[in-house]
Known about the structure:
Elements (H helix, E strand, L loop, with lengths): L3 H61 L4 H15 L1 H8 L3 H25 L7 H17 L6 H20 L7 H21 L19 H24 L1 H11 L1 H6 L4 H27 L4 H4 L2 H14 L5 H17 L5 H18 L4 H12 L5
Amino acid sequence: MTNPLFFIGTILAAASGSVQEAVGSIRENVLAPLGRVFDRVLAPVDRALSPVANAFNARLGDYFGELTGLQFLFLLVTFVGLLTAGVWAPLVSGSMLRTLALASIWAIFAMSWDIQSGYTGYISFGHSVLSSAAGYTTALLLVNVNPEMSLFITAPLSVLAALIVGLLVALPTLRLEGPYFSLITFVSVLLFYRLTTAYSALGGIPGFQEPSVFTWDPMLRYYYMVIPMLLIALVLTYLARSNLGMILIAIRENEAAVSAAGINPTKFKIGSFVLSSIPMGIGGVLLVGFTGNVDPSTFVIVDNSIEIIAIAVLGGMSSILGPLGGAFLFEFLNHEILGDLETSVRYLLLWTAVLSVLVFARNGLFRKVWHRLGAVGGDEQ
């Protein structure tokens, strides 16, 4: 009698082979010819913009990476598009500015996660704790100290709280690797969630409604979110290109070799968590100003941490700008394309999209686009 497991395994192996064969055929017969057309059309544009890109490379290439002409154009269009969204977004849809503002917050979360987990390879499932620490600190200060306390006081204290919680999570993981590190970060979310729901002093399940939104003006609210996001992207890109970023990548690739070179990887792993905690805290403060409330379902639940990872995977880990692009794509799909569907159906489609990226574009969509643009001039980066 045939073993059922053997039978199922045979079917799955055959299906996997068929999928790989189909993907190979599509790549050879469809994508490759399209790529050659793409190169022929865009190569003149790349050459025309090369002098501008070279001027950028000469002045800032050492700090932010060297660009080809098309990559420079891609960044310029994205930057101008984000800064002028207050003009064009309302013409696209009535909710577009809200979607872009929310995407800016999630971009901060995803980039913060990426500088720690994407660069070191130590996957954290607990980053929502860091933004929660900032959000709850803001709420507790307003509720228990002074309801009129200035943002210039609550924001630094909230970011400091995120930093302290980040250290508390990082310290027990000093000697841990792989799944044990991930498990501790995952448990930290569960602990924080139970803490906030069990004690009325922390708001319980309803949370706090006292914090007020920064503004109800959609355009002003968008710029409150996008400008800090752009500044954080700039700083994190600079740090990722520095010696610090190189060491974090080296830890991911071969931690034993880093130790053998006389560098203490533990110190840099803690540094990456601290570095990640600060923008997570800023993102938490912005989320309070966006929603006007602080509760476990908005801030703490583990779904938030999973969504941060999904956004980073969608855009491309270990790149800072990949998670930024992933956040805007994810939120655009979530609220503008699939927004009329039921929540469960919407997220089923979103997770299917993330799974498809993991299978067919493992390095992320935006990293793939970025490298493709770099390859047009024959100088893939």
